[in-house]
Design brief:
Layout: E1 9-15, E2 26-32, E3 38-41, H1 44-66
Antiparallel strand pairs: 1-2, 2-3
């Protein structure tokens, strides 16, 4: 049985109207829903890097949260 988790991101894209496709035809912001972390990006690689960072950090954040003493 494999472990899996579901991660949610909110992606906002600003697309500039243009008849000529270019590298700066769009930009945006991405937010990781569970951590609240976000980043503005202008390049696809920046978007992918952010997602990768959040996926690597995810299990560590969950473990740290689970290790907190209960409020009894």
């Amino acid at each position: 049985m494999s472990n899996r988790r579901v991660e949610s991101f909110l992606l906002r894209l600003v697309v500039h109207d243009s008849n000529v496709p270019s590298a700066d035809a769009w930009h945006g912001r991405i937010q990781h829903i569970s951590s609240g972390g976000e980043r503005q990006f202008e390049h696809m690689q920046d978007l992918l890097d952010f997602i990768g960072q959040q996926l690597v950090q995810g299990p560590q954040l969950l473990i740290a949260y689970d290790d907190q003493p209960s409020a009894e």
